[in-house]
Amino acid sequence: MIRFPASEPPGSAAMVESHGVAHVAEPRPAWLEAARRPGVVLLLALIYFLSGKIGLLMAIPPGLATPVWPPSGIALASIVLLGTRTWPGIWIGAFLLNTTQLLAIEGAEVSRALLVAVGIATGSTLQPLLGARLLERAVAARDPLARTSDVLRFVGLAGVAGCMTSASIGVTSVWLGGFASQAELAANWLTWWLGDLAGVPLLTPL
């Protein structure tokens, strides 16, 4: 079940319901929240990186677009459940993943590979941020998987619309970096978009 996080500042008290009775939970210290954040970001980066390696086993040349992209669902879930402050973990994981993938291509220049990886990582980060924002505006605090109409909004906004962001920025970055020809743009974009689209409904609800 997906729930949007409450917008409470660190150190504020939260309402906790137990056996039908509401209680005020003890506020968490701001220093504890700050200390936990880097660990969450690094863990998310690692999960993104490893799940991406699995997804790239099905990639088409040049090895950056795949029919199913698990990190897209993981990234959206992290934004929805943990908040927008986790976005650096998505960016770091995507950057490292694509850097290693690009440098594995024979004859790849390091500087060009790094620039392309920055572009792909940026698109991969903007995608869940946009998808979560559109979804939040559409379903408010409701569970987007509880009703058929909200499921359609979830797929349409977070999936169909949101995934266009990563596919467009990613494919353009790959093309400008010289890792794909203009003739391959349409096929790469479609595979990229469909892969991200498949990953959102498959992984986010988990």
Question: Can I get a quick summary?
Answer:
By secondary structure, the protein is mainly alpha-helical. It has helices at about 30-55, 70-80, 85-105, 110-140, 150-175, 185-205; strands at about 15-20, 20-25.
Can you give keywords for this protein?
single chain; about 210 residues; mainly alpha; two-stranded antiparallel ribbon; 6 helices
Percent of residues in beta strands? under 5%
What composes the largest sheet? 2 strands, antiparallel
Rounded average pLDDT: 79
The value of Rg in angstroms is 18 Å
Structural class: mainly alpha
Spatial strand arrangement across the major sheet = 1-2
State the distance separating the first and last CA atoms: 8 Å
Helix content: 55-70%
Low-confidence runs:
6-10, 12-16
Oligomer: single chain
User: What sequence of helices (H) and strands (E) makes up the elements?
Assistant: EEHHHHHH
Element layout with pairings:
Elements: E1 15-18, E2 21-24, H1 30-55, H2 70-82, H3 87-103, H4 110-139, H5 148-176, H6 185-203
Antiparallel strand pairs: 1-2
Protein architecture, described:
The chain is mainly α. It has helices at 30-55, 70-82, 87-103, 110-139, 148-176, 185-203, and strands spanning 15-18, 21-24. A hairpin with a 2-residue loop joins β1 and β2 (21-24). α1 (30-55) runs parallel beside α3, α2 packs across α4 and α5 packs antiparallel against α6. The longest helix is centred in the middle third of the chain and has 30 residues, at 110-139. The chain is globular. The chain starts with 14 loop residues before the first strand and ends with a helix.
